[in-house]
Amino acid sequence: MALSCSKCPSSSRLAASASHPRLPREQRLAASLSASPSSSRASSVSSLNCLGQRPDSLRGSAQSLRNRNRYPNVVRMQEAGFSSGGNESTVSITVVGASGDLAKKKIFPALFALYYEGCLPKHFTIFGYARSRMTDAELRNLVGQTLTCRIDQRENCSDKMDEFLKRCFYHSGQYDSEENFAELDNKLKEHETGMVANRLYYLSIPPNIFVDVARCASTSASSANGWTRVIVEKPFGRDSESSAALTRGLKRYLVEDQIFRIDHYLGKELVENLSVLRFSNLVFEPLWSRQYIRNVQLIFSEDFGTEGRGGYFDSYGIIRDIMQNHLLQILALFAMETPVSLDAEDIRNEKVKVLRSMKPLQLENVVIGQYKSHTKGGVTYPAYIDDRTVPKDSVTPTFAAAALFINNARWDGVPFLMKAGKALHTKRAEIRVQFRHVPGNLYKRSFGTDLDRATNELVIRVQPDEAIYLKINNKIPGLGMRLDRSKLNLHYAARYSKEIPDAYERLLLDAIEGERRLFIRSDELDAAWELFTPVLKELEDKKIAPELYPYGSRGPVGAHYLAAKYNVRWGDLSADDPHN
Ligand SMILES: NC(=O)C1=CN([C@@H]2O[C@H](COP(=O)(O)OP(=O)(O)OC[C@H]3O[C@@H](n4cnc5c(N)ncnc54)[C@H](OP(=O)(O)O)[C@@H]3O)[C@@H](O)[C@H]2O)C=CC1
Ligand SMILES: O=C1O[C@H](COP(=O)(O)O)[C@@H](O)[C@H](O)[C@H]1O
């Protein structure tokens, strides 16, 4: 666990300047928690109402009336939010699906890390909610075990953990029972007396019950005088149609500004840094186009299979699990035009624009694979279909490579190549930018026939061992004239002593603060599905068989043919060690 946000210095994050350019995080948090429409700062979170909307967007009587008719609960919450006054405020965070894997692995540890660093507000309560029967003590025990095995040597850690666990409670209930949510509401109220009560629900449950929970939470357990927000985990549907249906379902009970669709890759340090790199360094932005960039590679590789999640994975596959969301989000941030400001809506507008400039992925630009069993060093690694929850004849891809194009003046003709796979030889997530050849290169003889070796390459290593490095050609010191490829290397572990916060810490804190920049807006989601839905349908209708690749290998050879079609050579993940 990363316990490192060190009082959340505003200078360390773009978010700090996104909605409150000059306010330190503590003040922004306070502003968000006591959000009142009477504040005059037009662009700040404190000018937003309980739903995180600007009051003027609600004052329009037509809009208000429409909302009143269509979303009675929402309007009740909105109106209630206006009377929040100057009281102290509290935030109640309910983890729905608290008995599950994600809650244990990510959500509770992230909440504890925020608490440890003093990033949570003074008054807060955490509730676990799920069908499993559990007492408060049992939940504390479960969460405590997860934390204990991750923290150890931190100063005062066990005292902090005890304090944190005392703020954790549990309520058992059904996901579609308004009565059970009303019981939760009563329990939450016990901790909220006399304060502006803000409520955050984290839906860490399968997507088929998202709408039920949104209904029950909004009708029976929404805040009476503060904001109510809902974090929704992926997957957001399986295709354009199901995603639109899910959005419609959620919007019966929530307005868009209450919905925080999480893509945890947006919370990763180096993904957040992309905009800083591009827009605050003169050396990069002028090169960021078809004029200088030959191709861009977005690579996700895991060195383990779908262990334990085969049931979920088989109905989604790697394109939906990784490409349509994590890699496409990175692509959008990489390729978007300069936003008007760092405000969430300005950034998301640009992301939507670039996604809409893309052609839907074509079948001839996709290669799919599935891992098969492999024995190495006396150990046999299982095939995907060896998972008990996966049908033996499954054609679900665990690997995919794809070539996408952006039809705009900046990127016309530049291949954006994506590669995502499970059970490969290494764990890595990277962005690789390969630049064009130097025209009339005076030193071209030094590179023999392989001129590609002479081109610059910028690598942004998202994880693990975060780094940004630029491969350049350099004269080997000495009397002769020999060149080599060297790296200008920003290796995070060497440069920064801080541990990098986990993506979930950043995103949870943003949701509490009402900062939407790193969450997916519904039109972004629609645009993302439009790019992948046709090809997914074709692959599934035609039952196209994936190319098998051995567990622990580099994936199907087809990926190399796809890249070669566009004159691209995949960057070599294992050869590029940032320490060198
Ligand atoms: N785990 C991970 O690494 C990741 C998960 N996600 C997403 O996060 C969400 C939660 O994931 P995860 O914790 O792994 O999921 P789980 O399968 O562990 O489910 C979470 C909880 O939901 C309840 N639940 C499970 N299945 C059903 C069902 N069919 N009907 C009703 N309730 C059910 C269970 O609680 P109970 O029986 O006690 O009610 C369970 O503990 C999912 O949407 C997942 O896709 C996203 C990224 C990564
Ligand atoms: O969303 C998902 O992400 C994880 C990888 O996340 P990371 O932060 O560990 O890189 C992936 O294993 C999982 O299949 C997918 O659902």
From TrEMBL:
The keyword Oxidoreductase applies. Pathway: Carbohydrate degradation; pentose phosphate pathway; D-ribulose 5-phosphate from D-glucose 6-phosphate (oxidative stage): step 1/3. Residues 29-48 have a biased composition (Low complexity). Residues 1-65 are annotated as: Disordered. Pfam families: G6PD_C, G6PD_N. Residues 95-273 form the Glucose-6-phosphate dehydrogenase NAD-binding domain. Its EC number is 1.1.1.49. InterPro entries: G6P_DH, G6P_DH_AS, G6P_DH_C, G6P_DH_NAD-bd, NAD(P)-bd_dom_sf. One of its GO terms (molecular function) is glucose-6-phosphate dehydrogenase activity. Belongs to the glucose-6-phosphate dehydrogenase family. Catalyzes the rate-limiting step of the oxidative pentose-phosphate pathway, which represents a route for the dissimilation of carbohydrates besides glycolysis. This is Glucose-6-phosphate 1-dehydrogenase. It comes from Spirodela intermedia.
